Amino acid sequence: MKLRRSERMVVISNYLLNNPYQLISLNVFAEKYEAAKSSISEDVAIIKKAFNDGDIGCIETVTGANGGVVFTPAISTDEAREIAKELCQKLSENDRILPGGYIYLSDLLSTPAILKNVGRIIANAFKDKKIDAVMTVATKGVPLANAVANILNVPFVIVRRDLKITEGSTVSVNYASGSSDRIEKMFLSKRSLKPNSQVLIVDDFLKGGGTISGMISLLKEFDSKLVGVAVFADNIQERRHHLSYKSLLTVTNIDVRTNKIEVQLGNIFDS
Amino acid sequence: MKLRRSERMVVISNYLLNNPYQLISLNVFAEKYEAAKSSISEDVAIIKKAFNDGDIGCIETVTGANGGVVFTPAISTDEAREIAKELCQKLSENDRILPGGYIYLSDLLSTPAILKNVGRIIANAFKDKKIDAVMTVATKGVPLANAVANILNVPFVIVRRDLKITEGSTVSVNYASGSSDRIEKMFLSKRSLKPNSQVLIVDDFLKGGGTISGMISLLKEFDSKLVGVAVFADNIQERRHHLSYKSLLTVTNIDVRTNKIEVQLGNIFDS
């Protein structure tokens, strides 16, 4: 398919956007669009500048016979803060408080436009690390892990609190369920995580830290390493753990009596 | 931020790709990139042709004072078939058969590159319908629903088989669990679906059809309408339902004795 330069730039940038963190040979484009490799190089140089100026991400060139380009998505601090501030407001809506002092989050974590942006912010905070997989716990963590994994272009693995026949052999660990101080079990399908994986743990809400500590002990069972922990929101009122983590939002106070939730930007914006 | 035309086209197409099914005023770009609206119109015309030629999707222009452009993602039949054929091969790998004749799917449904493509194919089959939300059941359906919702740019709602305190008030229905002929309950948070929604149901694997029938009866409880049902794979050996649905893949035979799975393209490719 022969295209004009301007059109070629559109389809090449679409391809890069859909294949982040992947080494792509320029020959692929040269063949597909029947253009000289030098022309494709010029296209990519323009796309690189546009991605940079538009805070879309960074394109790096790898030289050599097996060379090509790698696109790493990014987000500017300004855009990330803007997005997080909007989420602060949404999260502090007073009709989110459920009996027991829980916060209703499901609507936020099931809206693609929000998820994509949250995924971009979390992935950006770990973009210099080598990550092989994103781990989370069913069910509420799944869309978030999916969003982060989309940007990092790695698989995600889902830890379960129940045993499912469709998961095959599993490994289980005990963990202290933060909300109830009960000891529970969590399970991970044996074939879902390769040994020696570098893993980013992602979850929706961090309170007691029991679930995340459980996932960290699962990592040991899979001879895998923790790269970091990222959560959509944490609640500092109930912090009883010493986990190192990054949060997008921090709930500083839930007042069930006055029906008020106080939220501020999380520690992912520190430094 | 003033950009050259070539760069402007890259950032504008990135914006359109990230905001499908949304009316976007060209004034937004004209202001942001300090260009005349006529120049932006020309940019969009080129992007439109490139999206068309590259089978990325279609850009429609809405005229009038509140006008703008709407990007509808698409996928060519050839590309969709190519993707599905590769998935056929993956699904028929003999180490996927689990005791009881179940098929291990989790690795496919947790790989972003696969999910994105499956989402594109399913969304494409319903792109002419008005859809307000995508519904699925926890846990395995979630990444798939998320992928379809990403393309359609609508929220997804997660039906659960257990009651969670963090979901607030729920509505429940009974359903016949296909695999066991037991009657079970499924729950949906009351605030997760607005009345009068047009809903696309998505799930990973269709066998007896009990789960999907359950979700359809939930729709009635929410005064909402079924637009269609789409599944990653169905198993015609165990078909005991009269549901109308579209499948990406069809399992025609699972032979536990010889450890063989036979898979073919699903009915989404019919006609």
TrEMBL record, chains A, B:
Highest taxon of source: Bacteria
GO biological process, any: negative regulation of purine nucleobase metabolic process
Membrane-traversing stretches: none
Keywords, in A-Z order: DNA-binding, Transcription, Transcription regulation
UniProt-listed NCBIfam families: purR_Bsub (TIGR01743)
Subunit-level organization: Homodimer.
Protein name: Pur operon repressor PurR
Source organism of this protein record: Streptococcus macacae NCTC 11558
Taxon lineage: Bacteria, Bacillati, Bacillota, Bacilli, Lactobacillales
